[in-house]
Amino acid sequence: MMHTDGRAWMALLVMGLVLGALPSQALNSGLPPPSAAMDRQTPHATAQGFLSAAHRGDYASAAHYLDLDFIPKAQQPERGAQLARRLKFVLDRKLSIDLSALSKAPEGDPADPRFDLVGTIPLDGANVSVRLQRVTQDGALLWVFSESTVRLVDPLFEAYGPRVAEWLPPFFFSGTVLGLEPWQWLGLLVVLLASVGLSLLLEKVSLAFGLRLARWTSIELDDQLVVAGKGPLRLPFFAVLLAVGTSFLLLPRPTQTVFNRVSYSLIIVAVAWFILRFLRVFADFIQNRVNSESRDPARARSLRTQFAVLRAVFEAATYVVAAALLLMQFEVVRNVGVSLLASAGIAGIVIGLAAQKSIATLLAGIQLSITQPVRIGDQVVVETEFGTVEEITLTYVVLRVWDQRRMVIPITYFLDKPFQNWSKVSPELLGAVTLQVDYSTDVDALRGELKRILDNEAKALWDGRVQTVVVLEAQDRTLTIRALVSAANPDRLFELRALVREKLVIFLRAHPQWLPFTRTESRQAPPVQVDPQSDAPQDASPPGPRAS
What we know:
- By secondary structure, the protein is an alpha+beta fold.
- It has helices at about 1-20, 45-55, 60, 75-95, 145-150, 155-160, 180-215, 220-230, 235-245, 255-295, 295-325, 330-340, 345-355, 355-370, 415, 445-455, 490-510, and strands spanning about 115-125, 125-135, 140-145, 380, 385-390, 395-400, 405-410, 420, 430-435, 460-475, 480-485, 530, 535-540.
- The strands form 4 sheets. Strands 7-6-5-4-8 form a 5-stranded antiparallel sheet. It has a 3-stranded antiparallel sheet with strand order 1-2-3. Strands 9-11-10 form a 3-stranded antiparallel sheet, covered by helices on one side.
- The protein is elongated and about 165 Å long.
């Protein structure tokens, strides 16, 4: 019995020596030899190499990263490239590989040195593990996608792969351009054209439906808001159609991320665009309503100023929020934002000190809209310049001077320095015309002439409130006469004063004795008398001057 067991052990030993002397079967022996630059020494290198080769369309090289030994050698080149392409689609669609989580050591994960888990993908109610396996070839350790993973590539592709693969010619699945296969480029073109056409159609239908509903109401604001949606409304439709359409093209994750961010950005732009349109329409609607219903021009100008400034504030806030939402999509900006928030105390002080003048200007604009020392349409005198307030922004005021020049004044000027506002409460004003006349002038005649002028030539300019003529000052040689008149606004007052001055001068010219003239005086020399007792002459004239 022991002799029989010894012979059996001897036979096993000889068989082991024979098998050990035979050359071991190479990995994927049906494939062409891999290039010398191919790195499969670590799980990280294998996953990175497979994704790089697959995304540039080199599926023949990507097949070397798969364990294809279960496939007959003659079929390995064709099936290997096919499986590599299908695995790329599945990974791009359902699994975001974190290369940093894979081991960079040839021995792999010490907890399980034979396998390294890439991730799991759901399939038919279960999770399929995508794993890398360590194999030995010619005494060297190599890492490839495990046989169990490769066997499940076809079922995974059936669940998550492109449906067009069944009816498009093979040309559309051969090679890549910029990481995308021809069928994906064709799909992008179709999606873009279809998204543009459908977004225009949906916008037209939505606007028509909205206008039909708006006509049921008596107010005009909703009609104007529906019309304002033309343009901003098509962007959300286009963004949604673009995101949904590209999701069926199984684009690589980075490419799909780009389209998703474009769609998200378009929605943000559309919302900001519509808010700006809404602010304009709402401000115009309120202004027109006030102008039509209010009989107080001052109140209308007050509301116009408030809406102009508040609209500028909300528009600036809309731009800032929209820009922030757009930038927050990017990790770099988000990380910078987190870092800034961590040092918000110091950053706030620095920014506050650096931008204190700008912030003060913005606050001054808001304060101006509330207190309203000046409003759009007011007629003011600033630095001896008379003009009409044409525009008020958050940082400056535009003054239209009477000779059509424009003065741009910092908004803080109207809070820090005095100025004249001729229409703050009411545009009605008084204006004076002064003349120099002789003492012999008949003032009552001047009063009558002023009344005649106001009742005739200046009837369209005078508002009928004030007409007076007074002796303002008596100087040594002339009288200063002031004619005071009133007008409904500064423009009419200027023309009225010029007309009254002209007509009074003509009236005085008809009475030249009332015009000022220069008087002169002379004194006669007294007769000289000689005192008989003295040789000195004596002045015999009475005291006092004699006028001539």
